[in-house]
Amino acid sequence: MRPNKPSTSQPPGAMVTPADNGLRPRIDATAGDDADSVRILIVDDDPALRRTFPHALARPGRLFDECGSIGEAIGRLEKQRYALILLDYRLPDANGLALLDWLSDHQRDEAVIIISGEDAIDAAIGALRGGADDYVRKPYHVAQLQRAVDGALHKGTLERANKLMSQRLKDSERLHRYLVESSPDMIFTLDGSGRFTYINPRIKALLGYDRSALVKRPFTTLVMPEDLDRIDTLLSQPSSLPGESFHVELRLRSRRDGGGEGGSVTVSLTGIPMVTQENDRRVIGLYGVARDISERKRAEEIISFQAYHDQLTHLPNRVLFKDRLELAIAQAQRRTGALAVMFIDIDRFKLVNDTFGHAEGDLLLRAIASRLSATLRRGDTLARLGGDEFTVLLPDINQPEDAEVIARKVLDALATPVRLSQGEFRATVSVGIALFPRDGTTAEDLTRHADAAMYQVKRSGKNAFRFFDPELNTRHRDRIALENDLRGAVARGELDLHYQPQVSLATRGIVGLEALLRWNHPGLGAIPPATFIQVAEEVGLISEISNWVLETACAQLARWQAEGVGAPRVSINLSACDFQRGDVVGRIRACLDRHGVAPSCLEVEITEGLMMDDTADIAAKVRALREAGISVAIDDFGTGYSALAYLQRFPVSTLKIDRSFVRDLEGPMTNPIISAITGIARGFDLDLVAEGVENLEQADALRALGCEVMQGYLFARPAPAGEVPGWLRQPERLFLGAGSADLQAAPA
Fold first, then answer.
1. Are strands 62-67 and 429-436 parallel, antiparallel or unpaired?
2. Are strands 654-657 and 631-637 parallel, antiparallel or unpaired?
3. Is the N-terminal amide bond of 139 cis, ω within 30° of 0?
4. Number of Cβ atoms within 10 Å of the Cβ of 711
5. Composition bias, kind Polar residues: at what positions (predicted)?
6. Which of 94, 256, 315, 462 sits CB 3.0–4.6 Å from 347 for a disulfide?
7. CB-side neighbour CA atoms (13 Å) of 439
8. How far is C-alpha 581 from the chain's CA centre?
9. What local confidence, expressed as pLDDT, does residue 5 receive?
């Protein structure tokens, strides 16, 4: 039973009588036995008082049952045991002494506190003689009752603990001989001269000797000659150091492998001096335990290997590599030397796992580990950090070119395809190199900087090596800071939409508006989407941002309509991730319905790369958007090596000529790609928009090539939503700065 915590109920001076009322704690009368619970039975014919007790005596872990007569109490006791009974002296069917007699007859150990209004001392004496633990007279203070209950429960706890300890002692004595006789260890005692006085039966299985043949013989007769001096010294210690044990590993003679005398078994021996109980504490012998540690030694070797090596390739793991790197750094600092750390990552490793399975991936890892090991010098360390990542420690590097030579060897070693069970695979790796002390003076810095250099190789095309550049670290820190700031940009209201008009030269009017996302960073100012959209896609924030763009654009359309501004169709850009995850069509339609905007007022721009994924699911989503009346435009058309087959599968409505084709326009025949795109648009009956028109020459050339709808700085820069009504009311202002009579002329 747990010790009771201090009370937090009524103050000690408060009186409790049957008339007191209060909040009654929940009583779980049906709860089962619980090692952490204390169950108390309240026996009193006054219901009000029964309700008062749980309130006054409530403690964590206490459970209360209640009844109003001796008969009911006996009925409960026959089904349940209690730690304590609070028993009224006078009850309708008998006095409390009857219940004490019942408890005594049934050998029950419940503690009992008699609560009585009797003034006569005989009542108290009779109750205590009958077995009650305490006697409390009414009326009483809460503190008095609490102390009585706490004392009775504490006494019961001590009694049960004492009973348990006594039982355990008996069990221990009963089991002692069995444990010694059946022990898997060799247990023995020696007298003061080092001779056996007792040996357990384990000696036969461990060493092959009969224990009767060893009694009264010196322990040293079992010790191999190489260990005799050591054990003699230890056996002589107890006489000068009584009470101190010793531990030693030594070899004992063994006859268990054929009966000869040549064998030995390595054991771990623990010796404990046996001393007298007198004041002089003399050593009279030795208690010893010898354990065969052959299996343990083998297990330790396996555990040690597993703790410091990769199980697949048997190369050193991260822990061992760090240990060796730190040691190499310390040695290089003493000699004022240099070293290099290489971080190697297998290119396209996920493709092998996804295509051929993880068993083939493991085979590839082992093959690459073998080839990498063959390229390194004798003192180098190759380790596998996990997955498809390896690190190399190159100590004693005299100049960066030494590390470069090894990096080239690593790349050349993988030039030959790796033969897998499913076929051949040409593996390549990306290698980052960090030099000590130039790129860092700690193991963590060198590994991190080599990793950063490797990551830059990945971004630059893979299958190469690169030395760490401090600018890489700066860019990585900037990238992490950008990620952290971006995570709360929507919640902090830092995003904004600017709008840029799409004008028709034929009608000299605005035919559309493109909603362009801006991030108003509190420290960096306005950040264009090209800087942070890729980050949002990589960290999983793009869906939240896309939802914000959709909601904001639709809400703005609804406001313009309510203000009587005849806004044309608004284009929004969605990421490929939006189409690859979730129901993008349902989200768009729900948003339009929520704001009361017609589907024809919205256009969704997708990238050409999304079309090149060529999945049936994406094509179906594009088709569903078109069927819902929502226009779909292909942004940056012509940059993704488009094929006409994509346009047949994806029912888009608009092509947008990328600004990279518009930038270098000098005449109507100087860009065959734009000519081809205009032809494709006419052939598929698609709308055509040219982006990035910044000067008159570009506009004239585009118009000559058959493109009438344009978007760019020549007409207007992206601006907040507040500028749009002015454009829509006076669209001719957009053509005044064009500087061409042809562009400013009224349509035919």
1. unpaired
2. parallel
3. yes
4. 26
5. 1-11
6. 462
7. 30
8. 24
9. 35
CA distance 578 to 574: 6
| Unique residue bearing structure tokens 């971004």 | 459
Dihedral-angle region of residue 241 (phi above 0 means left; psi in -120 to 50 means alpha; beta otherwise): beta
- Angle between helices 584-595 and 616-627 in degrees, nearest 10: 20
Among residues 252, 161, 159, the alpha carbon closest in space to that of 199 is found at: 252
Which range is least confidently modeled, 314-318, 487-491, 539-543, 637-641? 637-641
pLDDT category of residue 25 using cuts at 50, 70 and 90: very low
At 507-538, the pLDDT tens digits run 899 999 999 999 888 888 888 888 888 888 87
* Alpha-carbon torsion, ordered 46, 47, 53, 54, to 10 deg: 160
**Cβ density class 61-79: b for 16+ within 10 Å, e for less:** ebbbbbbbbbebbbebbee
The mean pLDDT of 597-608, rounded to a whole number, is 90
Q: Nearest CA to 211 among 198, 224, 193?
A: 198
The CATH class that applies to domain 15-163 reads alpha beta
Q: Express as a percent the part of the chain with pLDDT over 70.
A: 88
Specify whether the CB–CB gap between 551 and 597 falls below 8 A.
Answer: no
Length of the chain: 748
Listed in sequence order, the residues at least 6 apart from 521 whose beta carbon sits closer than 8 Å to its beta carbon are: 485, 489, 494, 527
Q: What are the tens digits of pLDDT across the range 318-344? A: 999 999 999 999 999 998 889 999 999
**Token pair for residue 721?**
């939503």
> Under CATH, what is the fold of the domain 484-738?
TIM Barrel (3.20.20)
- pLDDT classification of 295: cutoffs 50, 70, 90: confident
CA distances (Å), 561 to each of 376, 558, 587, 604, 615, in order?
71, 5, 22, 20, 37
The SS3 call for residue 376 is coil
The CATH T-level fold of domain 309-468 is Alpha-Beta Plaits (3.30.70)
> Domain 183-293 - what CATH class?
alpha beta
224, 232, 220: which is closest to 250 by C-alpha?
A: 224
- Return the domain boundaries, the chain: 15-163, 183-293, 309-468, 484-738
